[in-house]
Design brief:
- 2 copies of one chain form a homodimer.
- By secondary structure, chain A is α+β, with helices and mostly antiparallel strands.
- The first copy, chain A, folds into 3 domains: 260 residues, BirA Bifunctional Protein, domain 2 (2-Layer Sandwich), CATH 3.30.930; 94 residues, Rossmann fold (3-Layer(aba) Sandwich), CATH 3.40.50; 71 residues, Translation Initiation Factor IF3 (2-Layer Sandwich), CATH 3.30.110.
- Helix content of chain A is 36%, strand content 28%.
- Chain A has 14 helices and 25 strands.
- In chain A, the strands form 6 sheets. Chain A has an 11-stranded mixed β-sheet, with helices on both faces. Chain A has a 5-stranded mixed β-sheet with strand order 16-15-17-18-19, with helices on both faces. The first copy, chain A, has a 3-stranded antiparallel β-sheet with strand order 4-6-5.
- In chain A, strand 10 and strand 11 form a beta hairpin.
- In chain A, helix 2 crosses helix 6.
- The radius of gyration of chain A is 25 Å and the shape is globular.
- Chains A and B meet through strand 2, helix 2, strand 3, strand 4 and strand 5 of A and strand 2, helix 2, strand 3, strand 4 and strand 5 of B.
- Strand 5 of chain A pairs antiparallel with strand 5 of chain B, so a sheet runs across the interface.
């Protein structure tokens, strides 16, 4: 059953795949580049979806659903967009048994089809802002698969909004960036760097791309969400015009933004350990696992009590499972639920029952403490909240320890190789230096942090003047 | 803004399209055969999804996600299946800029890819039953689009289960049929006929297909959900074998089952009227609309009170909107919310406030009654429950009035033309008579009701002996 999990220090990449396939969160499929999301992975994604969806709806967004297929002529309308996406598309050429007159692209993102509809729906400033989100599957051709991180098909949400003014569109772009940041911190227990992408890393068709970046345990960065200010690029390509309050016709201002199932990969890599997953309590499909420990005729008493505890905790709003399987040793069960990342385990044997307690064991640090049975419903929720905070604090401490202020290129090259992490260095702003640094070191500018203070300095590579440090890292 | 809605008696089909596009629930897209589901339609689908999902999970099912693409060699493995589905598939032949070695079919249903995975996951009787559901998009090529009812792409759920015995698989098939029936009755306010499909109407690859059929207001039947007993057909095609408790290797027994966004079409056609949608309260995205009625400086007082009422009702767990828009007449607002099908309207003017009441208006019958403001939180939930029951009762009464027991073919031909409905007639069981009746009358056997009593009779067409009546109808 339980195969060996490669330790992180031995091979971080294999550790990741071992955890994902054994938990199991996902599996490889016989379709090249496509994964199967297994029930534990899907339950985790549904919890993420529900939390984000509530945040979107609380800020006035509604969900809709647009076609999977995009006619070739649509995807060609925005020049930068087609250049960015066409090479990685899956293309339908046969439908209903016949060769199609126009090829259909399986959506790699939905700007083109959505703005074509917006052109039809938006007539007046009264129709604005239009704030729509969609939960959907997306296809971008990949040859080398990494479960959740790089797959041909993945699940995501994509928001697409239209506004009467540039200012409102920019406010929306930043509002969503804040939602992503809040979600990462409060739900995923993941500290992020908020910032702006350089032109080289910008979304194909955007004026400005904002992102959140998070550091994984191997000191590589993972882009966890992006929010694009699209200006009027797509509005002009698709003729999204509205009659302004003042009377004339104007092009709408757009934003688009998204997060995907790669966030599951981020949770695995940010918190997992050599025993498997470590899930943040707020997202964990099972928050508490109760393992009754019994021999022979003790069973009825112990399992009965475990069931009662489960019912009590469920009434307190918690997601709880009770593992009453027979013929499986407690130690085996402990390992299995640790692999699945359940934040809190309650062990319950006859002696615990006699003493009126259960032994609690925290997944992330294996800290044990007896809890009185009478106060479990009151004690467990704050305990889970504390675990959630502990995970965040640990991730933040790891990131702080792996963030380096570097001013000379030789140190930069050495540190990026080992130990890696975020390297905060000055950059002159030229695409040439950015490209050269990438070629020399495989490090890219993850973002220009929106929180970075102004600071005079000299570009790491060329020595030209710079006014702020940027975050370099190797990335997923 | 509000265009004319074609009355049902004038042209039922245009009435349907008018309601769907004006509410708006959906829109045509520039992609042939594909629709756009607009926010109201999507919110309705999400409410359906959440209710069904809870029923699936309560019966031990888990969600997963399988690839959108199915390699051609997979879809060819089950003979009846490929014959049934291949002609209506969209096929990807280009990926990542290159011609693919093997064509990829966009899933028209996922049996083949799912059972290929089950073959990998199922090793022992201990792995059974495997109870998995997926919420996904599906593509089946259609030339003539009818929003929600017939579109190239649609959303659905598809359950796929594996069992150790035929009996368990059959129990699962019927359990799901009951869930669909319960959902239709209790959530959609839609009475259904539960039954078995004839061989001609069976799912491609199934041993037996069960279904629920519901009558629309134009007296045509709509298949609202199907549950298939697949026997070992797919297990044998994909080598889904397990080691039995007794030691030997056996093929698993499978079921699959699904409902789709066509259920939205069913809600529209079962309850809507010439003013637009009529939504069942349990599914309505907005259950109560509050319309404050004010002139000039009455605004603050009336809108303030309306907001308070909205907050009170939301605390009572209801989905409520308050329409405080200025410059739009109350009558216009009434029409708009009627078009959108909101079950209950509360009108609130200065005189109502003086009298300590709001005027309630039920959407489905326009019944008006004053409600004391102080008891709204207590009064509205039972009022919505009563509306839900009224809708069901009305739909059931319509169906009963449109169900005819017919014993001679000439009457059958006359009645199926007008008024239509369910024609309960004897059928000998031969595919030949079924086909001939279909060719003569456009009526098909919707199902052999599982509730039908045995009754000796003679086949409508050939006069051979029959032991029970079946439900004939013209269908969507």
């Amino acid at each position: 059953m339980a195969e060996r999990i490669t330790p992180r220090t031995e091979d971080y990449s294999r550790w990741y795949t071992d955890v994902v396939t054994q938990a199991p969160l996902a599996d490889y499929s016989p379709v090249k580049g496509c994964m199967v999301i297994r029930p534990l992975g899907m339950a985790l994604w549904e919890n993420m979806r529900d939390a984000l969806d509530a945040m979107f709806k609380a800020t006035g967004h509604e969900n809709a659903y647009f076609p999977l297929f995009i006619p070739e002529s649509f995807i060609r309308k925005e020049k930068a967009h087609i250049e960015g996406f066409a090479p990685e598309c899956a293309v339908v050429t046969i439908g209903g048994g016949k060769e199609l007159e126009e090829k259909l692209y399986v959506r790699p993102t939905s700007e083109t089809i959505i703005y074509a509809m917006y052109a039809k729906w938006i007539k007046s400033y009264r129709d604005l802002p239009l704030l729509i989100n969609q939960w959907a599957n997306i296809v971008r051709w990949e040859m080398r698969t990494r479960l959740f991180l790089r797959t041909t098909e993945f699940l995501w949400q994509e928001g697409h909004t239209a506004h009467a003014t540039e200012r409102e569109a920019m406010e929306e772009t930043l509002k969503i960036l804040d939602i992503y940041d809040t979600f990462a911190r409060e739900w995923m227990a993941l500290p992020t760097i908020k910032g702006i992408k350089t032109a080289a890393e910008r979304f194909a068709g955007a004026v400005e791309t904002y992102c959140i970046e998070a550091l994984m345990q191997d000191n590589k960065s993972l882009q966890a969400g992006t929010s694009h200010h699209l200006g009027q690029n797509f509005a002009k390509a698709f003729d999204v015009k509205f009659q302004a309050e003042s009377g004339g016709w104007e092009y709408a201002w757009n934003t688009s933004w998204g997060v995907s199932t790669r966030l599951i990969g981020a949770v695995v890599m940010a918190h997992g350990d050599d025993n498997g997953l470590v899930l943040p309590p707020k997202l964990a499909p099972t928050q508490v696992i109760i393992v009754p420990i019994f021999k022979g005729d003790e069973k009825q008493r112990v399992v009965g009590a475990a069931e009662e505890i489960a019912a009590t905790l469920r009434r307190a709003g918690l997601r709880v499972k009770m593992d009453g399987r027979e013929g499986i040793r407690p130690g085996f069960k402990f390992n299995e639920w640790e692999l699945k990342g359940v934040p809190l385990r309650l062990e319950l044997g006859p002696k615990d029952l006699d003493a009126g307690q259960a032994m609690s064991v925290k997944r992330h640090n294996r800290e044990k403490a007896p809890l009185p049975l009478g106060s479990l419903a009151a004690a467990v929720p704050p305990l889970l909240a504390k675990i959630q905070q502990n995970l965040f604090d640990a991730a933040l401490a790891r990131r702080e320890a792996a963030t380096h202020v570097i001013d000379d290129y030789e140190s930069f090259k050495r540190v990026i190789d080992s130990p890696g992490g975020f390297l905060r260095s000055h950059w002159c702003g030229s695409a040439g230096c950015e490209e050269a640094i990438k070629n020399d070191t495989k490090a890219t500018i993850r973002c220009i942090s929106t929180d970075a203070a102004e600071e005079r300095g000299k570009c790491l590579r060329c020595g030209e003047a710079s006014t702020r440090r940027v975050h370099f890292a190797r990335a997923y």
